Amino acid sequence: MPTYRLTIAYNGTDFCGWQKQEPPAPSPDQPPATGAAIHHADPSLQAPPGRVALRTVQAVVEQAVRQVVREPVVLTGASRTDAGVHARGQTAAFTCSDGTDPARHGGGWPIERGVESLVRAVNGRLPPDVLVTAAQPTHAEFNPIGDAERKAYTYTFHDNHQRPLFDRALVTHTHHTLNAEAMHAAAQHLVGEHDFAAFTQINHDRQTTVRTIYSLDVERTAEHRVRITVSGNGFLYNMVRIIAGTLHEVGRGRIEPKELASTLNSCDRRQAGPTAAPMGLCLEWIRYPGDSC
Prior knowledge:
Elements: E1 3-10, H1 57-69, E2 76-77, E3 86-95, H2 115-123, E4 130-138, E5 150-159, E6 172-174, H3 180-187, E7 192-195, E8 210-222, E9 225-232, H4 239-251, H5 259-266, E10 281-287
Parallel strand pairs: 3-10, 5-6
Antiparallel strand pairs: 1-3, 1-4, 2-3, 5-9, 5-10, 7-8, 8-9
Helix pairs in contact: 1-2, 3-4
C-alpha cells in the first residue's frame, strides 16, 4: 500500500484553518450564527450524521484525494494552521491501495502511475485557493508531525496609514511606522533553545514549552512592508503570532529591544505583547530527514 507525501499551498482567508471540524448540526429552531461566525458549513463536504463539515484545508484536500484514488483515505497534516493563516509549504500524507486488489474495483494509486499525474488529478478537483505543489512516495511509517525536523514561518506587516488593497488578506495592517532594525535586534534574544512559555497561550496542552529557534530575522522588504522570518524545531500554539505581536510593540517604540530577554526569562504570557492577527502569517516550509535544503 503506497504512502504519498504532499506539499500543499493555500490562501487561508476562506478556510476555518487546516484541521477538519465537524460540529453538531444546528437544530431547525436554532437562530443563524452571526458576528464572529464568518465561516459556515460547506455542503459539498461529507460529514457524519447529525454533524456538519466546516470548510477546512484538510477536509477539502482529503475529499479531492478520495475522489482521485476512489477509496477512503485519511490525510494527515504536519501543522494545524488557524483560520486565516496561509501556507506555501504545508506537508500532508495519505496511504492508499496499489490498484491491484480486484475487490476495490481499480481504486488506489500505484507507484508506476506517477506522482505528476497524481498532482494534476488532485488539483483538478481543488478550489482556486488551495493547490498541491508537489508529491512523492514515502515510507509507510512517515509521520508528517513527528518526523518534522524544522519549520519556517513568515509574518508580514504593512505599516502605513493607508491600508493595503490587493494583498490585504496576506498582510497585517498597522498604522505605526515600524523600526525594523530595533525589531531585529530584539528578536535575537529569542534565538536558541529556551522555555517559550511567555510566547504561547496560557492554557496550552503541551508537556513542555521548550523549543529551539534557529534563526529569527526582521527586515524591511519594500516600502511599508516589514517581514519577520523564523525557523525552529517546532512552535507552540500561537507562538509565532505572539512573537510577531511583541516585535510589533518593539517596532513602534513601546518595548525596548533589550526587554525581550527578561520577557523570555519570565515565562509569563502577560509580559509579552499581543497575539498578532492571523492574516500576516504564512507557513513557508517544513524539513524532514533526508530533505535537501
